[in-house]
What does this fold into?
Amino acid sequence: MIALASEDFVPVLLTTCGVLQLYRRAGSRGVLVAASLIGAGGFAKATAKLIVALGGPDLPWLRGLLFPLLTLGFALLYRTLVRRAIGRTPRWLAVSAPVLVAVCALAALWAADPLPMLVSTTVFATATGVHLILLARRQRDTTAAVLIGIQLAAFFVLGPLGARPGQTVALQWAEQLCNTAAQAAFLAATRRLSTGPVGATGPAPA
It folds into this structure.
């Protein structure tokens, strides 16, 4: 179980490095803050799992930081990329993003469970992925588009699956290795995109 818990840090590192690759394109500290938030969320959950594996106490508050921090990180990342692409933050995004975060946060507080924030995390992560896929298509980089698509597909499948209780060790290993592969694909894609032409990239996806 210690090896399983330790491996959980690998996709966190890959995802964080993947987001950091986008700094060259966006040229904004927002990307750095987003990478910090996303990395902190994944690190918190991985740390909580490692503590339990080492015989320590279960820390629900530490595990519970995952989706709130991912939500904030991907929301900021998407907003930063859109702003860089079109030169401004669309009014609909400036209004809808904080509203969605607030609604999901209130639902999480009401349910005493951070799981409702999986909804907002999914929305912002998907929007970011679609934005990057369209960017890859504009750069005629089919490989990058496919790699981002793989990462998105894994997010939709592994996110809800990993939140289910009572999983076997074998299933957890399968999930984590698939997640590691998906985040490696994300890192490879963002590295390709970061070396493309820097500048306005046309309209962002609605």
Notes: Confidence is low (pLDDT under 50) at residues 198-206. Residues 169-194 form the longest helix (26 residues). The radius of gyration is 17 Å.
